[in-house]
Design brief:
This protein has 17 helices and 20 strands. By secondary structure, it is an alpha+beta fold.
Length: 504
């Protein structure tokens, strides 16, 4: 099976490393005037307008980030709740006017590399209050649903996931897709990493707002790719499904799906024609071809345990009553950090709340794939130095004391942000072990797992009125810096945290 020919992943991963990856051109440039349209536009299609209620329901952001509901009680979200889930995941939360050629810029609920917004969200549902069964595309520009198919097509999802139990019970499933060229125009072949980074930060929002409504959900990464893509009528060379999220629980049996025929609705998903075949090759190599492959693929990954010395226990959490809705609406990517310190209680809160795990088909409950490594530049109550987060012991393991602010900046592509931040956090995984268990598809889930944790860190930081921003990095230099502890680990995600610099 091609999924277990993992040389494909190593070719892509090593080839897209900074600074000298063989699949990247160092002479490549990108100008904001070339930014593709960040929306998928369907022509001559029925649309359903959504009525949005932004009012907070009273759940704190920190609770929403960290709580997981596993309810077998029948909970079917109605259209009002579904609209809130979609909006606080990928809706437009603010508009800012910039000088030409940029003009007015529409920012969304979750961060995205280059603000290129290449992740699309689709809905497959049964009849729910306010919405008939069907397949829909979420249009954040108009806050509408594009009607792609009418009828209950959930059995297609059940078949594609090899009878995954949670999918059978879910009245609503979201499908997240990636429009490759919308992001690769700036980031070249490295876009396939960004696909899961940006999808993961969106899903961090999605899981939080679902949790705020006390609804259960499960992330499903194992499915027959072609069946999901066909359901959405995608040209998989241009746009492809990344992951699905099943939401809620119903006791009603799923009816037989209507006949699946081509939709034949004209759409424009990007005005960029730049293709990188390495992206398609990596996606194809990590695709699952039939339900037999899905069944054999689905398993729970067990992380190795590490002996830890020189442990510093995390502090009592800093709590805030700011609601998840309020935090998402004010969240942004910090553009400059002050050199001011944060306190150890704030860092402890971010680490605890963002690493509570997710319910997914590739993870044991309340677990994460990636390990967290930190460079502490300025945290009151914690010596400057490098650390490993010993999550199972609720402690930080001191690796080296010292002032590594210059190193922090260097590892983050020689940028000011990681240099100036109070803390930089690197999510790293033993990629070889993940690939041995999951094949090439393990690359998808390793990136996604890291990004969801990073997305939760964004939200936790903003809940505490701190700043946060995701960054790219010099891959091998990160591993070298944290070795020998991080020997054989690869970086999946990097985020900087600290106090925002005051505008002059």
């Amino acid at each position: 099976m091609k999924n277990y020919d993992v040389e494909c992943t190593w070719h892509y991963h090593n080839g897209t490393k900074h600074p000298n990856g063989t699949l990247l051109s160092r002479s490549h440039t990108y100008h904001p005037a070339l930014r593709p349209t960040p929306y998928k536009i369907y022509k001559n299609i029925q649309k359903i307008s959504l009525s949005l209620d932004k009012e907070p329901i009273g759940i704190s952001a920190l609770d929403a980030i960290s709580n997981i509901y596993d309810s077998k009680v029948e909970i079917i979200p109605d259209l009002n709740v579904l609209t809130r889930i979609l909006y606080f995941s990928g809706g437009i939360t603010k508009k800012i006017k910039f000088p030409p050629p940029i003009g007015e810029f529409e920012f969304r609920a979750a961060s995205c590399t280059g603000a290129l917004y290449h992740i699309e969200i689709y809905v497959v549902c049964s009849d729910i209050t306010g919405l008939s069964a069907g397949v829909y595309h979420f249009d954040p520009k108009e806050l509408k649903l594009n009607v792609l198919r009418k009828g209950d097509f959930r059995q297609v999802l059940v078949n594609a996931t090899a009878d995954e139990e949670f999918v059978k019970q879910a009245p609503v499933t979201l499908i997240f897709t990636d429009v490759f060229s919308r992001n690769s125009i700036k980031y070249q072949a490295r876009e396939y990493r960004h696909a899961f980074w940006d999808c993961g930060t969106i899903i961090a929002n999605t899981l939080s707002i679902i949790s705020a409504h006390k609804i259960s959900s499960r992330l499903i990464s194992g499915f027959v790719d072609s069946q999901i893509n066909n359901l959405l009528d995608l040209d998989s060379n241009k746009e492809a499904s990344l992951v699905t999220l099943s939401i809620g629980c119903t006791n009603k049996p799923i009816p037989q799906s209507p006949t699946l025929v081509p939709i034949n609705i004209e759409s424009a998903s990007s005005d960029s024609d730049v293709d990188y075949p390495e992206i398609n090759s990596m996606h194809d190599a990590s695709s699952l071809c039939d339900t037999i492959e899905v069944k054999s693929w689905r398993k729970h990954f067990v992380k190795p345990q590490y002996a830890a010395t020189d442990l510093i226990s995390l502090r009592t959490e800093t709590l805030t009553r700011d609601t998840i809705e309020k935090v998402i609406l004010r969240r942004g990517s910090t553009r400059a950090f002050s050199h001011d310190s944060i306190n150890f209680e704030e860092l402890s809160t971010i680490l605890k709340r963002s690493t509570n795990g997710i319910d997914a088909d590739f993870l044991c409950r309340n677990n994460i794939l990636n390990d967290l490594y930190l460079i502490v530049n300025k945290v009151d109550g914690l010596p400057s130095g490098s650390y490993h987060y010993a999550r199972e012991r609720d402690s930080l393991q001191l690796l080296r004391k010292g002032d590594f602010r210059e190193t922090s900046g260097n590892l983050g592509l020689d940028q000011d942000l990681p240099h100036d931040a109070s803390v930089t956090i690197f999510l790293m995984v033993n990629l070889q072990k993940v690939l041995e268990s999951f094949g090439n598809r393990g690359y998808r889930i390793a990136q996604l797992d890291a990004a969801i944790t990073g997305g939760r860190m964004y939200l936790a930081a903003y809940a505490l009125n701190l700043g946060a921003t995701g960054l790219t990095f010099y891959d091998d230099l990160v591993t070298n810096f944290f070795s020998p502890h991080a020997k054989n680990k690869d970086t999946m995600f990097m985020i900087a945290l600290g106090k925002k610099a005051k505008s002059s």
